[in-house]
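Notes to self after the Tuesday call (sharing in case useful).
The group wants a holo model before anyone commits to mutagenesis around the pocket. I volunteered. Ligand is oxa(dethia)-CoA. Logging inputs and output together so the record is complete.
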Amino acid sequence: MSRSAVLVGIGSFLPPRVVSNADLVARLDTTDEWIWARTGIAQRYYADPGMATSDLAVGAGAAALKSAGESTVDTVVVATTTPDRPCPGTAPLVASRLGLTGAAAFDVNAVCTGFLYGLATGAGLIAGGSADRVLVIGAETFSSILDPADRTTSAIFGDGAGAVVLRAGTADEPGAIGRCDLGSDGEGYDMITVRAGGSRSRLAATSPEPGDHYFTMAGREVFWRAVQRMSDSCRAVLEQAKMTTEDVDWLVGHQANQRILNRLADNLGIPRERCVSNIAAVGNTAAASIPLALDHVCAAGLLRPGHRVLLTAFGGGLTWGSTVLTWPALARG
Ligand code: UT7
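Result:
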C-alpha cells in the first residue's frame, strides 16, 4: 500500500472575548434579526489587541500535538490571512513557541481555503518522503483587518484557530488524506481583498485611500460563486475517490454563511442534518473554519471513527478546495 499522510491529532483554540450580535447592534446599523436570518451567526470571538494570530495558533497546535501524543514534528504549516507581521511568516514563531525549533515552517495564504491548501501541502510533503510528521494549523485574527464601520463583514467574521497533526502511514488507514481537489480564479481577485499594504499599493510611498487597509468583500457576488465552486469541487473529489454523496456521513463546509451551507448541501443532495455547522457560535473564521468545525463536532461525539467526511472550502483569490477522508480514532488534546 502506498505511503500516505494520516490524520492522527486535532485541536482548536478560541480567544476569550465573545462578541454577540447585540454587541454589534450597539455600535452598527444592524439588527440581531438581520444577522441571524441572513447568516445564521449568533456570536463570534475576537482577540483583543495584544493577542495575535501566533497566540491562537500555538493554543490550537499544542492541543493537536497532545491529541496525537506527539512532542515533535518536522514541519509546521500555518494557513492564515492575518499573519502577526507581513514579514516574516508566522509559522517559524509558532514552531519555536511549541518547542519545535529546527522544524521546516512556513505560511500558506489561500484566505478561507487556506487550511485545505495547507493540508494538501503537508500531505504532499509526507507522501513525497520530505516529512514524516506535519502540524497543519489554520489561524486567524480577522478582527484585526475588519473595518469597524462595515456592518456586513463585521457581522460575519471572527477569530480562532484549529490544527491537525499528520504522520506517515498508508493509504488504506483511517485518516489517510487522499487526493485534494484545489483550484483558483484570479478574475475574482478584487472580490475579497485588503487593497493597501502590499507591493501594489505601498504604505510607505503613498497614503492609501480611506479604508483601503481594511478587508472588503463583494458579499452577494461571492455568495453564488462559493456555492457553485464548492459543489463542483465536492463532486470532483468524490468522483476521483469513486464515492457518491450517499457514502458521505458528514459534509464539513467552510463556515461562511449558514445559507451557503444549506444551498451546498441541497445542491449535493446531502441532507442538511449531515452538514456540520458551528457557525452560530464562532462565525466565519476563514482559514481556521474547517479544523475548528471538525474539532467541535468531534468533541460533541457526533463525528466518530469510520465516518466518511467530505471537507470543502472557498475563499479569497478566489480559491477553493475539497478532500474526503475516513475519520480515525482520535484522543482530544
Ligand atoms: O469566507 C469566504 C467567502 N465568503 C463568503 O462566502 C460570504 C458570501 N456572502 C455572504 O455570506 C452574504 O452575501 C453576506 C452575509 C455577506 C450578505 O448577505 P446578503 O443576503 O447577500 O446581503 P446583501 O449584501 O445582498 O445586502 C442586502 C441588504 C442590503 O441593503 P439594501 O441595499 O437591500 O437596502 C445591505 O445594505 O442588506 C443590507 N445589509 C445589512 N442590513 C443589516 C448588509 N449587511 C447588513 C447588516 N445588517 N449587517
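Two things stood out.
The chain has ten helices and 13 strands.
Residues 28 and 150 are 8 Å apart (CA to CA).
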